[in-house]
Structures are given as structure tokens and as C-alpha cells.
Specification:
By secondary structure, the protein is an alpha/beta fold. The chain contains ten helices and five strands. It has a five-stranded parallel sheet with strand order 2-1-3-4-5, with helices on both faces.
Length: 210
């Protein structure tokens, strides 16, 4: 609870969200523990948040996350000095993909089919049972994130929603929805960042304690 305590001390008005944040962490940790990946989507500032979360998961956040010693030994044995360099600089990763990053696919599918399903199409292609979809929408009603959550449920993915106070459709669809107590978009996004930083800290500590 240490990271949640710090979050609550810095943002007291998030106290009502703490149980949902903890539930999101447990769901997310279980998925990574079983070898699954995370897909993340959002629009506008939430698209930037999607990229941000991937950056915190796929490399060291506050820890260096060195590879296991046997990886370094194998790398050096196979490749000599380049293998040593690789092992010294790679960092442990929690596999995550931002669905906002695939520009050619997004524009092709949006132009040829519909922009409402640009994230759902990727969930359909990438998603496997046990994976997690993180959907960020300040209203909870962004059509492309809602459809992505629907496809995720059809395929057996777990779903975590980040929304504003009302929760919108995502609150109905997601296994866990963190509805922050704000309504204005930029205020919602400010709190989302504090929360996903906390969750990334918790996940990093769970998987890279040493």
C-alpha cells in the first residue's frame, strides 16, 4: 500500500478511487504474471497517455531492471563483447503496445472502413485471452475506445478503464474502471497521470524487486 498511501497524501480527493486502483493493479499484475501483454488506447491527450504508459512499462521507470545473470552469460558466450554490451544495457520489460502508434494502420482502416473501429481492429488482431486492454477516455464514451472494450470482452481480455467522474459506457464495460472525481478534460487527465504513474511503480516493484 506504500505507493497508494503516497498517492492519497498528494491527491487526497483520489481517496475514493483507491480500492479501484488496487483492483486494477491486481488484475494487471496477474495478467503480466501469466505471461500476457497489455494493449492501451485513447484519443488526444489520452493517446499521449497511452504512449506514456508504454514508456514506463517497457523499460526501467525508477529501477534499472537488469536482465537475469544467465542472459548476460549466454549473450557474452555467443557474441563476445557485443553480447556483453547488450546485456549491460537492456532493461526488463512488461510487454505493452500503444494502439495509438500504428499510424499507417490507423489511417488505412479509418479511411477504408471506419475510424470508430481503429482500436477495436487492433484488439481483434493483437488480443489474446488473459491480455489486458487499458482504455482511457475522460468522458468514458469515446466511441473507438468503447468498441475496443467490447471486442476485448468478446475475446476474453481483461479491461481497465480510466475515465472522469461519470464513467460513461466504459464504466459498464470494463472489469475495473477508475473514475476520477473531475469533469473537465485537462483536470481528469492530470489525475490519470498520477494514477498510472502509481500503478507503474507498483508493477515495477512487483516484477523487478531486486
Amino acid at each position: 500500500m506504500r505507493h497508494l498511501d503516497v498517492l492519497a497524501a498528494r491527491y487526497p480527493h483520489l481517496t475514493p478511487c483507491l480500492s479501484d486502483i488496487q483492483a486494477a493493479f491486481e488484475l494487471w499484475r496477474e495478467s503480466f504474471d501469466q505471461g500476457n501483454k497489455t494493449l492501451i488506447c485513447g484519443n488526444g491527450g489520452s493517446a499521449a497517455d497511452s504512449e506514456h504508459i508504454v514508456g514506463e512499462l517497457m523499460k526501467g521507470f525508477v529501477r534499472m531492471r537488469p536482465p537475469e545473470p544467465d542472459f548476460g552469460q549466454r549473450a557474452e558466450r555467443l557474441f563476445g563483447e557485443p553480447g556483453r554490451f547488450i546485456a549491460q544495457h537492456l532493461q526488463g520489460a512488461l510487454p505493452a503496445i500503444s494502439l495509438t502508434s500504428q499510424q499507417s494502420l490507423l489511417t488505412a482502416f479509418g479511411n477504408d472502413v471506419t475510424f470508430d473501429l481503429v482500436y477495436a481492429q487492433q484488439v481483434f488482431g493483437y488480443g489474446r485471452p488473459g491480455d489486458v486492454l487499458v482504455a482511457l477516455s475522460t468522458s468514458g464514451n469515446s466511441v473507438n475506445t468503447v468498441y475496443a472494450a467490447m471486442v476485448a470482452k468478446l475475446l476474453g481480455l481483461k479491461t481497465i478503464g480510466f475515465t472522469g467522474r461519470a464513467g460513461g459506457r466504459l464504466k459498464e464495460l470494463c472489469d475495473v474502471t477508475i473514475c476520477v472525481p473531475e469533469d473537465e478534460t485537462y483536470k481528469v487527465q492530470e489525475l490519470h497521470q498520477a494514477i498510472y504513474h502509481t500503478l507503474c511503480l507498483m508493477l515495477e516493484e512487483a516484477f523487478f524487486a531486486n
